[in-house]
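Journal club prep — side note

Before the paper discussion, L.F. wants everyone to see what a predicted structure for a comparable chain looks like in token form. Sequence:
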Amino acid sequence: MTPSGGAAAGEDVLRAVLAQLEPGRRAELTAGETGWSTVPAPEVGLRPVVLVDGPLGLVSPTFDERDTSLLLPCGTALGATWDPEVVRAVAAAEASEARRRGFDGVYAPNLNLARTGLSGRTFEMLSEDPQLAGVLGAAFVQGVQGQGVASFPKHLVCNDTETERQRMSATVDPVTLREVYLRPFELAVRAGAWGVMTAYNGINGVPCAEDAELLGVLKDEWGFDGLTVSDYFALKQTIAPALAGLDLEMPGPAIHLGARLAAAVAAGQVPQERVDDAVLRLLRLAGRVGALPGHDRVVGAPGEQVDREQAADVLAAAAAAAFTLVRNEGPVLPLDGAGTARLAVLGPNADRPCYQGATFGRIRPDRPPVVPLDALRARFAGEVVHEPGIALTRPEPLGAFAVTAPDGTPGVLLEHRVADAGAEPVLTEVRGDSSFIWFGTVPGVGPTTRPGSLRLTAVLTPTVSGVHLLGAGGSGDTTLTVDGRPVADRPAPAPQDVMGQVARAEMTAGEVELTAGVPVTVVVEMRSAGSRVQALTVGCLAPQPAGALARAVGAAAGADAVVLVVGDVLETSRESRDLEDSALPAAQEELIRAVAAVNPRTVVVVNAGRPVHAPWAEEVAAVLFAWFPGEEFGPALAGVLAGDREPGGRMPVTVPLQDADRSTWGEQLDADLALDYTATEPVGYRHLQRTGRPARFPFGSGEGYTSWEVREPGLTVDRDGPVVRAEVGVTVVNTGARAGRDVVQVYVQGPGEDSARLAGFAAVRLGAGESARVAVTLDERSFQRWDVGAGWVVPGGRHAVRVGRSSADLPHELAVDL
């Protein structure tokens, strides 16, 4: 808010606005109007506040592929930068776009933790470590809100698994909850977050949106003055979330709050003061984003907005900063252009990279990204050959094939019908996609709860002859025909699993023989009794040529070097579904080993937003984790492989020698859908420390194109009662032949603890042979531990302070007695 009287005067103004609203009207403002906007109150000048999903970019409010956005590096990629400035710049680019498009708030960042590495949404998460996730999450908040756009960190709290996420409950003790899972949110709130989204799941049996103790920590203990919003359709009742401190139900229109909340107030079940607090928080947010008269959008310094071309540079730099080089024998990288007359660029992700995981919020860039293969061809002067090495096995979106509407217009024809409007479609449109979803409302049609049908018609012209696999699925009974012949039939999902099946985009497929160049008409009909969400997905798998592996091996054998790009497809990591293990598909592992056997200069680029099991790593010359690096993947990769840029990343997650080395391996929900977090703590690198097991790629590890030494550590401590702050100073020396960036990491192990936890980090850039003194600041939580009876306390005794370059490379140990 920016009234001239300052913060106190601003609050007085907001309370005066609140007083102009009748009590029943106030209750209306506690639920959204649509799936993306709040209820306006024109009588006081309040316009709708427009909120969109945004961990990987701005999601179309109507999930329309015609709404394009910047595609950001994913959460693990941003985590791999270990660089708040890079994260802040990426967030500012997204928020600048949000302002241009009229969005007021972004549901991001995702501050849940990659505790297992197997969550279907690991790619959205910044790290397995709460300190790294919190520091970078705070930078994201600052980058977004510096543009006057609200950041809503999510999902408070422990939404770290996708299995039964709407019904499961995390069993977690108070110490672990405070020290680990709430820590990133605490740092985001300290950074000034204007909103927070609660999680679907429960904590110790209480749904997060109904957890008064949890929301009390947020609002009362941390002093959060922003707006709490439910995850979509998370509420199951009215009174409990209202009393707990949930301020806004989304999406709209209201189901449990709104009018039902007004009735609960009238019945004496919810005090009017609770509604007033919720509405005051909404008004405060509206003031901050300029949605109230007399309140200008709160922004950073003039000129900070990022235009489209600047954004491309920001995203390319962020992608390179995220690339994490964990092996480089020889060294084979950077590639010598003069000595690489023939470069083999192999693998399924070289020309069909994966840019994002499969969530409701899929991002469509406004211009086709340059794929790694094309970028490498542009960068290297020699011959560049390509073979995918693997046949596709899963249907791809039908819209990616040569399809037209019946009148020849490129795309597919959609016809929307509703049961009470006769036989004629109420909306006919040609769309460029073949995967559709609508929450609450279908624009131009009406509420998704109305019974009706959706028909997709596409004229498909095959490019190869043979058996094609065609599939479809959706939120209702779905049938697929080809030239009138039934090919696939899928029943409607069970009512309690509509959201899950829609998120997983499940299809039923059938085979049909097609001839190259001969068009066929594909018709998919989805009939629905009405639901809070409607969806349709249609896919096709064309016949795959034989001998893909042999051709790739042949190309590798005749090349001076190999860049082998492997990893995920869109369906690998998916909302509402967890992974069974962390391995690449068996065919990809076979490809890696076969190629490495014929070419010792093989560089494996892992295009996956998660920690990937890599038993093949020592068989290849180099391993580079590229994550899901955003729309600038191709140019950034070419620049890094050629040495124009340095791979700046450090591992934000642990890759153990085997999945069984994780403390979480094999954990399952019990009969009551509870997941015992306490039994598996600590997780990630701390578990490996306490068990003495080595990691294949340790948390915090990574190489650039030079070498480093960390010398002469020193520690200064300042104690003020229960608050201890410290600074670690080290001399960092670039002992290599070129400039680079290194990250100094400090870990603290308290008295009686069997593992050390990340407490702080700092980066340094130095030229060849240069040295510098680097300071790493440790805040009070570095030495405090949670005591259920006393709150945050400093345990008495010796605290070990370890310094180095990764969780497994900490050669310097300091100590302080507290």
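L.F.'s comment for the group: The mean pLDDT is 95. Keep this in mind when we get to the figures.
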